[in-house]
Write a structure and sequence with these properties.
The protein is α/β, with parallel strands linked by helices. Helices cover 37% and strands 19% of the residues. It is built from nine helices and twelve strands. The strands form two sheets. The protein has a six-stranded mixed beta sheet, with helices on both faces. It has a six-stranded parallel beta sheet with strand order 9-8-7-10-11-12, sandwiched between helices. The longest helix has 16 residues, at 237-252. The structure holds NADP nicotinamide-adenine-dinucleotide phosphate (NAP). The site of NADP nicotinamide-adenine-dinucleotide phosphate has 26 residues, from helix 4, helix 5 and helix 8.
């Protein structure tokens, strides 16, 4: 009997060159015995890339920077949590030929945090007001925690805080904040700003846990400083693995091997370190 062709999944973003999603997804499908392949496309024209999902056809697409919000109008359906967050990072091309948008970043943040702490009744200072910050605030609220927003641009931070019903502090006032956990959702600490930290070291003692959504490098300057200050550091790998695992669940209906996926990511990061 002729074997059916592999299911095809893809990553849409710009740039996509350094993403670890392809090795992580492909290793997971192989381990699960699923005949599927996952590749990355550097998207220049989003409308054309969406047409490609239907024509090829692709079973599902991961969406990353800068298209997570821009993609929404192109979809037939958007799940409620993705609509509230205002960002889609996962598209399912379901059997009726329709494209449905999901957000798995919020599950990623929550499951990443829950590897180290219980969210309920804890306070979280979220640094940033972009897509990752909105996913974090949404997830923390869903789990019974209390987020507060700290952002460089006051208008954007205030608008987000109002939408999620939580307090806002300008970045210049971060020294006055006490919270159980600080979450960095800014890109400060990753290339091209490796070695930089979004905040000064002196205030880290105001937090018990410090999470960085960045996973490359594994130990950002912020997490190094947090360790010195006696905080428990949480890197972005857990979030990355869980957001990808949730995508696989949406596309295949099967539970992926999360610990195996984490090992694949850690090995890839180790190999890149040696470059
Ligand atoms: P985004 O929508 O562009 O938002 C970035 C936020 O960071 C904005 O609020 C911006 O503040 C702030 N910011 C940028 N540069 C800053 C600086 N120099 N100083 C202070 N604040 C600064 O980006 P995003 O999609 O939320 O992604 C943010 C980070 O999360 C990226 O590093 C991404 O790789 C990471 N991420 C990780 C995962 C994972 O699975 N681990 C998943 C999603 C995202 P303004 O409002 O003032 O511009």
């Amino acid at each position: 009997m002729k074997e059916s062709p592999p299911a095809i999944f893809a990553l849409y973003g710009n740039p996509v060159g350094h993403s670890l999603s392809p090795p992580m997804h492909n290793a997971a499908y192989k381990k699960m015995g699923i005949n599927a392949t996952y590749c990355s496309y550097c998207v220049e024209d989003l409308a054309e890339a969406i047409t490609r999902i239907r024509e090829h056809p692709l079973g599902g697409v991961s969406v990353t920077i800068p298209f997570k919000t821009a993609v929404i109008p192109y979809l037939d359906e958007v799940q409620d949590d993705a609509r509230t967050i205002g960002a889609v990072n996962t598209i399912l091309h379901h059997d009726k030929g329709r494209l449905r948008g999901y957000n798995t970043d919020w599950t990623g943040v929550v499951l990443g945090l829950e590897e180290s702490l219980d969210i309920r009744d804890k306070t979280f200072a979220i640094l940033g007001a972009g897509g990752a910050a909105r996913a974090a605030a949404y997830g923390i609220l869903r789990r019974g925690g209390s987020p507060l927003i700290v952002n460089r641009t006051t208008a954007r931070g205030e608008e987000m805080a109002q939408e999620f019903g939580c307090p806002f502090y300008p970045l210049s006032e971060i020294g006055a904040i006490r919270a159980d956990c600080l979450i960095n959702t800014t890109p400060v600490g990753m290339a091209p700003e490796k070695g930089a930290s979004p905040i000064v070291t002196g205030i880290l003692a105001n937090f018990q846990w410090v999470m960085d959504c960045i996973y490359n490098p594994l130990k950002t300057q912020l997490l190094q400083d947090a360790e010195v200050a006696g905080c428990t550091p949480i890197n972005g790998v857990g979030m990355f693995v869980h957001q990808g695992a949730e995508q696989i669940k949406i596309w295949t209906g099967k539970e992926p091997p999360r610990e195996f996926m984490r090992q694949v990511v850690l090995e890839e990061l180790g190999a890149q370190d040696g470059d």
